[in-house]
């Protein structure tokens, strides 16, 4: 009888009294199936581990605000996501923003936003500062996805600096992606457009001539 190496592994799991019977009488096809089942059972935990969510804070939101406003952030204000804003928000994100209002911080022509968007399955928390209709800085604050964390690095986030919002709700500059992090890249791109749009909604109207 041909004996597979895996048979000995299964044999070791059986009571001693049944082990000789197992090797001498087990049909080869049934034994092969049991071997494959055992291998899959042993491999399953490692496969699931790669998809585990590991929340990691790269920069605390309070520190982002302090860095954005020279260590003296202003008091937060509120932008209500009214019916008039929702169509544009849906156009940018492809869905509604899961809140009825957004807190933001404003000092002269600079605003700061802490927004969240799903990458693949988990929300990514991003801090975005906008000044004079352009992105001044963008930082990944909290990352919860199991893949795509490369978007936290400055070589990627610095691309958003000086980007503005075109009339068609697209960015004024191209953002190069990262292989294997497409969903996270797209999430940050959507949030950058959303922050620019929100900034426009908070701008005071120009004085009448």
Features:
six-stranded antiparallel β-sheet, disordered N terminus
Tell me about this structure:
Helices cover 37% and strands 20% of the residues. It is α+β, with helices and mostly antiparallel strands. It has a six-stranded antiparallel sheet with strand order 1-6-5-4-3-2, with helices on both faces. Helix 5 packs antiparallel against helix 7 (182-202).
Distance between the termini: 98 Å
What is the gyration radius calculated from CA atoms?
A: 27 Å
Strand content: 15-25%
Number of helices: 7
Largest sheet: 6 strands, antiparallel
Structural class by secondary-structure content: alpha+beta
Mean pLDDT comes to 84
Helix content: 25-40%
What is the H/E order? HHHEHEHEEEEHH
According to DSSP, the number of beta strands is 6
- What spatial form do the alpha-carbon principal axes imply? globular
Extract low-pLDDT stretches: 1-10, 42-49
Strand order of the largest sheet: 1-6-5-4-3-2
């Amino acid at each position: 009888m041909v004996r597979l190496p895996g048979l000995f592994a299964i044999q070791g799991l059986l009571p001693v009294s049944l082990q000789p019977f197992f090797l001498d009488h087990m049909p080869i096809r049934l034994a092969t199936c049991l071997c494959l089942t055992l291998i899959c059972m042993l491999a399953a935990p490692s496969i699931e581990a790669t998809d585990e969510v590991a929340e990691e804070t790269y920069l605390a939101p309070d520190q982002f605000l302090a860095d954005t406003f020279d260590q003296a952030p202003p008091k937060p204000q509120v932008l209500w996501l009214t019916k008039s804003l929702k169509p544009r928000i849906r156009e940018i994100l492809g869905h509604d923003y899961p809140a009825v209002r957004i807190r933001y911080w404003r000092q002269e022509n600079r605003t700061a936003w802490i927004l969240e968007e799903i990458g693949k399955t988990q929300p990514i928390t991003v801090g975005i500062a906008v000044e004079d209709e352009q992105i001044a800085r963008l930082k990944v604050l909290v990352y919860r996805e199991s893949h795509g964390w490369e978007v936290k690095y400055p070589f990627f986030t610095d691309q958003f600096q000086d980007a503005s919002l075109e009339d068609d709700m697209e960015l004024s500059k191209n953002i190069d992606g990262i292989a294997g992090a497409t969903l996270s890249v797209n999430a940050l791109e959507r949030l950058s457009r959303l922050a620019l749009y929100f900034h426009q909604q908070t701008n005071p109207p120009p004085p009448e001539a």
